[in-house]
Specification:
single chain, 67 residues, alpha+beta, two-stranded antiparallel ribbon, globular
């Protein structure tokens, strides 16, 4: 386990206990936004099982946040 919350079991727990209001919501696409808690360390993540996506935010690209 890397400690940055990127393992599947840790992400499942984070998603289950993080409300939409308290989630990061950095956009991967219009259909996928980060479901990790605000202020998380490590990668952004969305989705479950084989459909789970992980991404790092490009520091040269301004964040896109859902309101």
């Amino acid at each position: 386990m890397s400690g940055d919350g990127s393992s599947d079991s840790l992400l499942d727990l984070e998603f289950a206990y993080t409300s939409h209001q308290d989630s990061c919501r950095d956009l991967y696409s219009p259909f996928y936004y980060c479901r990790r808690p605000l202020g998380h360390d490590g990668v952004h993540a969305a989705g479950f099982g084989s459909g789970r996506l992980r991404w790092r935010h490009d520091p040269n690209h301004p964040p896109h946040m859902l309101s």
